[in-house]
Amino acid sequence: MACKRGALIVLEGVDRAGKTTQCNRLVEALQLSGRPAAMMKFPDRTTTIGKLINSYLESKSDLEDHTVHLLFSANRWELVPLMKKKLEEGTTLIIDRYAFSGVAFTSAKPGFSMNWCMNPDMGLPKPDLVLFLQLNPATAAQRGQFGTERYETSSFQQIVQRRFEELIADTSVNWQVIDASQSIDEVHENIKRLSVKAMNAAEDWPIGELWT
Ligand code: ADP
Ligand code: 2DT
């Protein structure tokens, strides 16, 4: 019998919600329980396209807003062959940000509709589960100051949060909202339970296509 495929699990959420912490914890826990798992992160700043994005985020270069949106999307598409290979080999992928961040951040800029922003990511591998780590700005502030990269201001992040709320209303995607104000261990237990359930449900189904 062909091996069961891995699941595609995405973590999204505002700055300092705990995405990176929880992705690491989840991969570690799955591996310890004998389930192949690997972490990925978007933007992946190591590729040629990722280096252009990194320079933009660090304000070392300027890029026209449509152009940078398409680069973020291209950065996902260039990794699709690797993602599919791993999923088909049975490895579950835990991903720190995906197309939802792409849409939420660009559509927070003036003059961008969510529909325009979604188009370049249509047909990407569809996540089996998207975990949204919900955290209010006051609690996020207790976890440290904003960094110095582009987009790291409270006024911009408030608009991003509203765009995420619109995306979460889309029932074609398996969203689960997690209270990220709980302790790291509590959040981890919630996330692990939902992930194992999604992994078991995904293994007999083909990989879907996002927003098609
Ligand atoms: P993100 O990737 O969403 O920006 P991080 O995982 O980098 O968030 O976490 C941001 C900061 O908050 C880190 O210092 C991390 O240790 C801390 N942190 C993460 N989760 C929690 C939590 N549940 N409670 C308290 N602090 C947390
Ligand atoms: P971090 O590397 O700290 O997560 O910040 N972004 C991300 C976009 O504008 N579009 C995208 O498609 C993605 C994946 C969110 C990366 C910053 O880049 C933003 C914060």
Automatic annotation (TrEMBL):
Q: State a GO cellular component annotated for this protein.
A: nucleus
Q: Which UniProt keywords apply?
A: ATP-binding, Kinase, Nucleotide biosynthesis, Nucleotide-binding, Transferase
- Which molecular-function annotation in GO is an example for this chain? ATP binding
Report the residue ranges that make up the Thymidylate kinase-like domain in this protein.
11-191
Q: Identify the NCBIfam families for this entry.
A: DTMP_kinase (TIGR00041)
Name of the protein described by the UniProt record: Thymidylate kinase
Biological process annotations from GO: dTDP biosynthetic process; dTTP biosynthetic process; dUDP biosynthetic process
Is the Plastid keyword given for this protein?
A: no
Q: Which gene encodes it?
A: DTYMK
UniProt cross-references to HAMAP family, sorted A to Z: Thymidylate_kinase
Q: Which family is it part of?
A: Belongs to the thymidylate kinase family.
Its EC number(s): 2.7.4.9
Q: What is the role of the protein in this entry?
A: Catalyzes the phosphorylation of thymidine monophosphate (dTMP) to thymidine diphosphate (dTDP), the immediate precursor for the DNA building block dTTP, with ATP as the preferred phosphoryl donor in the presence of Mg(2+).
Question: Which species is this UniProt entry from?
Answer: Merluccius polli (Benguela hake)
Pfam families under this entry?
Answer: Thymidylate_kin
Reaction(s) this enzyme catalyzes, per UniProt: dTMP + ATP = dTDP + ADP
> Which InterPro entries does the record cross-reference, listed alphabetically?
P-loop_NTPase, Thymidylate_kin-like_dom, Thymidylate_kin_CS, Thymidylate_kinase
Pathways per UniProt: Pyrimidine metabolism; dTTP biosynthesis
